[in-house]
Amino acid sequence: MNCPKCQSKKIIKYGHTHYGKPRFRCRDCGRQFVENPTRQPIDEATRQLIDKLLLERLALAAVARVTGVSERWLQMYVNQKFDDIPKKVEVSPKKKGKLTLQLDEMWSFVGNKDKKVWVWLAIDIESREIVGVFIGDRSRQSAQQLWQSLPPVDRQCAVCFTDFWEAYEQVIPNKRHQAVSKDSGKTSRIERFNNTLR
Q1: Per-residue pLDDT for 122 more than 90?
Q2: Pick from 51, 9, 46, 43: which is nearest to 29 by CA?
């Protein structure tokens, strides 16, 4: 028998697993292993299937059942996928000119309703892209963070339509800001997007 890590033949018995299978240890590299393991490494085809199933918004337990992987491994895989996602919003390049944004904030919670958060969003009404996002409280500092998350061309040239929340007036320059009522329809895209998220 060889070590699966370093292929050494210096193997010693090292007790049993909690399932009763004999465990071995390599004297050279210290790797612990069982002979003929029942769980093999997850192949690329299974990983691709998992990626497709995750896009269908199935429960992790359902994905684990269908693919035959453990829920623990699947949770680690999902966490790794999440860590690999870029944290900055990628926006398609734009030329200076007439740019129009709609900004709004939406209440949500994390875990339970005592842990309130506000999701601040900015949408470009021409491209329908989310161009800015910040998650925080409903303060002036959060509005400032949303403003800073916008691409420089939008901060310089875009007209921003918002509701009458005072934090916007304190952060967005007057020549770039127009506070409007919901009845005007000038914040309808972002309001519709927020309703979709809810």
Answers
A1: yes
A2: 9
